[in-house]
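Before relying on records like the one below, remember that each one covers exactly one chain. Contacts with other chains, cofactors or solvent are not represented anywhere in the record.
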Amino acid sequence: MVAVLSRMLGLNQIDRILDVVQDTFETALCKWKFSGIPDNPSGWLMQVAKNKALNTIKRENKIQAFSTSVYRSEVDKSFENQFGGLLSPQDIKDSELRLLFACCHPRFSVKNQIIITLNILCGFGIPEIANALLMNEEAVKKALTRSKASLRESGNLLQTSIITQSAERIKTVQTILYLMFNEGYKTTRGKKAINNDLCYEAIRLARLLEKDNSIVSSATNALLALMFFNIARFPARLDASDEWLTLEEQDRSKWHTIFIEEGYYYLNIATQSATVTRYHIEAIIASLHCAAPTFEATDWAKIARLYYQLEHIAPSPLVTLNRIIAESYLSNADSIKALDELAAHKDFKSNFLIPAVKGDVYKRKGEFKIARAFYEQALSLSVSPADKKLLQKKILQCQPNTN
């Protein structure tokens, strides 16, 4: 809806468009509650959005008083024809790709490209964006305000060709979809720990890129492989009370084999290229987890080597942490020392992850008293209700009477 209305009215009207879309969904919530969901919900929403946008334009141009005039009739007809011409599946796809790439225009910094796309096209709020980009919320709010102001002052960015996009802009779009999937994989502020819809939306948009042969790349296929390997495990990641289950606790018989097969399909395409990106390595790591028949059979040595390679391609403290976790399952690893060194990084100040991982390491060693102390430290730093419940469960597992 945002993409079609933006293409029709221009990105300089983005605030109005977002208001119209929000108002449309509020109308649906009210009407559908009593009349039921229509046979074609998406068509209903599009029609209502169109009518609301038209009414807004009429008010803006102060022509509502001329309801019987030829002028109003011509405006209605022009708007109707323009809108109707953008509702075929191919035109909607084209509108979404145009909006995606317009938000990734070089006039914005890479970080601002990501911020504005996550907000406009993906529906992220300020907390989700701040979490995804490891920024404070005030900085995100200021960047979003400046970027929207720039869009309002921009020319016709939606006329940009979707056929000849630069590799850098495609890379930025891939990053956005990666962050979008990650937010759904583990939500920041949602009532549920996993936002399935957000993950499926990230996959849908990634497939838009993959299906457009003019902008396809091995990285897009690798990204899709990673997404499919991860959603395959969704049915086993939570228990009946919607509490996290660790990889070791998950019932692998619940993993979706169809999604795993889909992951291998895209990974096979991705690995035919000589290019190696972070998505290739992460997808291969995810495939190793999916291939292991049991947790004990996991090839931690290979996974640790892959994370080491990932540190060189896309260095980040989280990648290093994952490498340390993988190495902690190997007998010769000094994981506690490595975790102590990593804890000094600014991204882990007041973060629960380091003490939580230390708790896991000591728990596997049978040092339950020390493990419990680290779990309690992690609990005091955690924010997510789902994370708190998982840590509370681990604390109970370290009680003397349970071991």
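The CA atoms of residues 289 and 297 lie 9 Å apart.
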